[in-house]
Amino acid sequence: MLATVEPNPSGSSRPESVFISWLLWQPRGADLAAEAMKELTKLAPYKDRDPDIVRLRSFFEQLAGRRGRPH
């Protein structure tokens, strides 16, 4: 069997794709701001280690109401 190695085979590792996927998996009626805060807690240990994580954190911060709109 031949295996291929691609850095982003499905493109799902982009912060935008991860965030959209997360949104789509939230149950109807979920408190998205509260759920975003939970994700921020999970991402806290990785703060500032990777630019993609910084961008992903900014999406969750905006949803949680901790930041203003992006420029």
Tell me about this structure.
This protein has a domain of 41 residues. The protein has 71 residues and is an all-alpha fold.
Distance between the termini: 47 Å
Percentage of residues in strands = under 5%
Q: What global shape is seen?
A: globular
* Rg (C-alpha, Å): 14 Å
Helix content: 40-55%
Number of helices: 3
Task: Indicate the topology.
Elements: H1 15-24, H2 32-43, H3 51-64
Give a quick set of tags describing it.
disordered N terminus, 71 residues, mainly alpha, 3 helices, 51% helix
Short description:
With 71 residues, this protein is mainly alpha-helical. It has helices at 15-24, 32-43, 51-64.
